[in-house]
Each structure stands twice: as C-alpha cells, then as structure tokens.
Design goal:
Blueprint: H1 2-33, H2 44-57, E1 82-84, E2 90-92, H3 95-103, H4 121-124, H5 127-139
Helix pairs in contact: 2-5, 3-5
The chain binds heme C.
Amino acid sequence: MRNWAEGVFALVIIVGLGAALFMFSGETLGEGTTDTTAPITVDPDAAVRGEIIAGSTGCLACHTTDGTPGSGPTWRGVAGSSRPLQSDEVVIADDVYLTNSILDPGSQVVVGFDNIMPPDYGDSLTEFEVGDLVEYVKSLAG
Ligand code: HEC
C-alpha cells in the first residue's frame, strides 16, 4: 500500500514538473514573439518619399524630427516606443498605431498634448502617402 501511494506521489510530481516546464517554455516563446525591442524594419525609399510629403503637407509645422516637442510630439524615437494616451492606455507605436495617428488622430491622443491635429488627412493623402509617412516616422526611431 505504501509503495503504491509513493508511486502515485512520484507520478504526480513528474507530471507536474513536466507541465510546469511546458508552460515555462511556452511563455519564453511568447515573450520572443512580442519582443518590443525587435529592430524596426524601414523601407528606405518610402522613408525618403515620406520626408518630402511631411514637408509639403505641413506636418512639420507641429512635429519636429530632432527630439524637441512642438505643438505635437517630436517624431524622434516615437516608433516602437510606449505611448501613454489620455485614455490611460499605454500602447506601443507600431505601424498600426502610427497609421491610425495620421488618419484618426483624435482617437488616440498622447498625454501632454491637445487634440489639435487635423483629422482629415485621410481625405487629402493617398493610402500610399500615409504609408510613406509612417516609414519616415519609423526611420526616426533611433
Ligand atoms: C496642427 C498641428 C499638427 C499637424 C499639422 C500635424 N500633427 Fe500630428 N499630432 C499633433 C498633436 C498635437 C499630436 C498629439 C495628440 C494626438 O495624439 O492626437 C499629434 C500626434 C501625431 C502622431 C502620434 C505621435 C506620438 O507621439 O505618438 C503622429 C504619428 C502624427 N501626429 C503624424 C502626423 C503627420 C504624418 C502629419 C502630417 C500629415 C501631422 N501629424 C500633422 C499635431 C499636429
């Protein structure tokens, strides 16, 4: 009887350890795929086009590229960083966030700034121009 109980006990420990190990390795894998320090990939040609569009569209009246805040946040270092929003959320500035910031700026307002960015760039810019602007902002990540 005692040996039987010991056997069950040992089995429970082995299964438990196995499960823990499995979960642990799963967690490490998960962390790897959501690694926010992963290098940002930029299309250099699109970034050059984006820089020109930013100048001609008037974005640079409110945004700087050198780290100094204007009436809008600087674009230096934004891509890939955590953005604290007035909704109390903190989001990572990935491609989706940056695109949304241009097309629907009022939906995710950054802490410390007013909701003054023109909301109608989606009407005046093509999808490709918005993509080029996003690549330009991403090229300023470092
Ligand atoms: C009248 C000033 C103004 C103009 C012009 C303007 N923005 Fe903005 N922008 C802001 C302000 C203020 C914010 C921060 C509040 C918010 O998130 O809406 C912002 C936020 C952003 C963000 C998010 C930045 C961050 O720190 O998370 C991006 C990206 C952006 N703007 C891109 C653009 C682009 C591209 C253009 C031109 C097509 C543009 N903006 C034109 C004022 C402006």
